[in-house]
Design a protein that fits this description.
Blueprint (H helix, E strand, L loop, with lengths): L22 H12 L21 E6 L4 E7 L7 E3 L4 E8 L1 E6 L7 E6 L3 E4 L6 E4 L4 E8 L4 E7 L5 E7 L13
Antiparallel strand pairs: 1-2, 2-9, 3-10, 4-7, 4-9, 5-6, 5-8, 10-11
C-alpha cells in the first residue's frame, strides 16, 4: 500500500487557536476551515491513486491542534479506532463519508455525513469511517494533537482487542491476529 502524506505541517494556519480546544470548539474550527477552501483545496487529490491507496495531508500541527485533509473513495476504511487522549472534529467538504460505532451484542450503528456536515467527539469515542462515494473530502482536527491512537479488531465471536498505534500510521481495518 502506498500513501501520500505531506510532511507534517508546522506553519500557522490562519485562525489557529493557540490553545487546546474542546470537542465543540474543534467542531466550530473545522466548520470555519471548510468554508475557506483557499487554505486546503490545492491539496485534494483522487485520480492518481491506485487500489488500496488513500491521499491525506497534514495541514497544520502545533502544540495545541493537529489538522488533516483526507480524500476518500468507497474502498477507504479506517477500521475501528479511537484518538487516545485527543478530542476531535470532522467536516465533510465534498461527497459523503460514512461513520459507524461498534455496539455490544448487535450490529454496528452508523450515519451518513454529507458535504456541509460536521461532527465532534471526545477522546473516549470509538468509531470507523469509510468513503461513502468516490471523490469525497473531509477535514479533521484533533486537540491536543494526536500522538497515539487505539486501533481495534472485533472477532467473529465478539471479542474486541485494542492496539496502540502512532498517529503517523494509516488506519486500516485490523484482522484479529489471535486464534
Amino acid at each position: 500500500m502506498t500513501v501520500h502524506p505531506a510532511a507534517p505541517a508546522t506553519g500557522t494556519l490562519p485562525g489557529a487557536p493557540g490553545r487546546v480546544l474542546d470537542a465543540q470548539e474543534l467542531r466550530a474550527y473545522v466548520r470555519d476551515l471548510a468554508a475557506r477552501p483557499e487554505l486546503w483545496r490545492h491539496h485534494v487529490a483522487h485520480g492518481s491513486r491506485g487500489a488500496g491507496e488513500r491521499h491525506y495531508v497534514s495541514l497544520h500541527r502545533d502544540e495545541h491542534v493537529d489538522v488533516w485533509l483526507l480524500c476518500w473513495n468507497t474502498a477507504d476504511d479506517t477500521g475501528w479506532h479511537d484518538h487516545d487522549t485527543s478530542s476531535g472534529a470532522v467536516a465533510v467538504v465534498d461527497g459523503v463519508v460514512l461513520e459507524s460505532w461498534p455496539r455490544l451484542g448487535g450490529e454496528a450503528a452508523g450515519r451518513e455525513l454529507g458535504s456541509g456536515q460536521e461532527i465532534c467527539f471526545g477522546p473516549e469515542y470509538i468509531h470507523r469511517m469509510t468513503g461513502g462515494v468516490d471523490g469525497s473530502v473531509s477535514i479533521h482536527a484533533y486537540s491536543p494533537p494526536l500522538w497515539r491512537m487505539g486501533q481495534y479488531s472485533i472477532s467473529e465471536d465478539g471479542v474486541m482487542r485494542r492496539w496502540s498505534v502512532s498517529y503517523a500510521d494509516e488506519l486500516r481495518p485490523l484482522e484479529d491476529p489471535t486464534p
